[in-house]
Amino acid sequence: MFNFSKTRYASLARYFLLIVMTTFSMLAFAQFPGEGAGTQADPYRVATPEHLATLQNFTGADHANVFFVQTADIQLQGNWEPIGPSAADSFRGTYDGDGFVIADLAIASAFRRGL
Fold first, then answer.
1. What is the DSSP string of 23-77?
2. pTM for the complete prediction?
3. pLDDT in tens, 70-81
């Protein structure tokens, strides 16, 4: 049996394992760059196009109980990539526009998808 701990490659193997574990842990937990905790009592606050684009990280059934509230008008430029790559992996959280506007939304897609 090959034993990494007895070879000169042991530290390299540990380093590689650490990188793999860190990458998977970062992918497992979506991060929001703005304020809020994502709960109903303290929703994530969406105020910029960058905040809105981050909703791409909150798709699918795993994020069905995440809450967002828009806190300012948002001006978009260029083509917008719809949130959620498919119906199975769509946005399922709660988004409250709170009377604010998302202006100049343009989607260039042959497929019918939501915001």
1. HHHHHHS---SSSS-SSSSSPEEE-SHHHHHGGGGSBSGGGTT-EEEE-S-EE--
2. 0.69
3. 999 999 998 888
